[in-house]
What we know:
Blueprint: H1 3-19, H2 25-30, E1 33-37, E2 46-49, E3 65-69, H3 70-76, H4 80-98, H5 103-108
Parallel strand pairs: 1-3
Antiparallel strand pairs: 2-3
Amino acid sequence: MAQQEEFGRxxxxxxxxxxxxxxxxxxxxxxxxxxxxxxxxxxxxxxxxGLPKGMESGLGEPPPEVTIYAATLLADFPDAExxxxxxxxxxxHEIGHYLGLSEEDLHARGLE
Length: 112
């Protein structure tokens, strides 16, 4: 499969995951900019940037953002169903950070 097609598959899975999120995660996700990066060589599946919900300082910060790293996910999850599950799991994990959950909180919920 061509690399652009593979990246498109991650984007599709991310869109599906966002549409299928339960509340209150779906509402929280609508407050975020969610992007899929094609950048190679990143050692994580996703990352949250910005201030957690409710911690805005009023100093004109950029909007909170979740970035999903397609190249890393594709390298680690060649099977389509495993990839779909991990994209969803990664989105939920990063949205959890936006909601103020720490790594320990996410681990306790099985979202490490």
